[in-house]
Fold this protein.
Amino acid sequence: MQDAGCEAVVKNFDVTVIGNVGIDTNVYFHGAEVDFGREANFTENLDYVGQAGGYASRGYAQLGKRTAFIGYVGDDFSGRFIRDELARDGVDTTAVFIDPAGTSRSINFMYRDGRRKNFYDGKSHMQLQPDRVICRSVLAQARLAHFNIPNWARLLLPIARELGVTIACDLQDVVTLHDGYREDFIDYADIVFFSAANQPDPKPLIEELLKWKPALIVVSGMGAAGCALGTRAGIRTFGPVTMDAPVIDTNGAGDGLAVGFLSSYVLDGYSLEDSVRRGQIAARYTCTQKASSSLLITGEIMRHYFER
């Protein structure tokens, strides 16, 4: 792999994750629903490192992949805690910059069946301008660039394309593809993921993506209904995987699907079908963890479920 006509760049990383990281506060209801007619409700409130960039970068690291992260934290207690947690996982933080507005936050209202309602504060992500020189040096060392979709991340897409890195973009909970925000990410992607949470059937959206870019690989998480895979060969659906442990928290499930698929298909050379299954295993395992991105699936646990 050549870097813009220069000497071959040593690939010190398997993957560079580009996205938002922050502190998530999960609010667990003791009852089936919250009573908004009362001022006070008793809940269990738990904080942890979350958001797409947090789950993805820690997910790759737990699978033993050499991982770098490009993102922002605040110069505050939460930002320092996140840096320490990523460093403990062995994630390279050379390109973790400072957001002057502070560290991103999410509040997740958690229902007893694992569903959530998310309230997201992305701080300055619409205005931030990452240091392209530092980001280029980190991207050049990776085989795979896993993009989430903070606004500033689109500025790094042309760099990743120029470097010849495989580009995967998680479009998250898409309502419509032509919304003006996601189009850059689709244009540059080799592989895209999206949640079907807003789609009664993901197939029309997958067909639209493949018409847009016929060589694209499309993976759609369908929650409890399973997963869909779209390629130029057609669209296939896969039923959900089962585990003995119950679903208690769906935060990070989509990130688990992407990490499990990409680590298998791009980095380890598994077939598309096996990679989908491994992605589903990672996603389902994520749902067994309560308010945690530090106990994601490991290679050993993945082998246990994949080979059984």
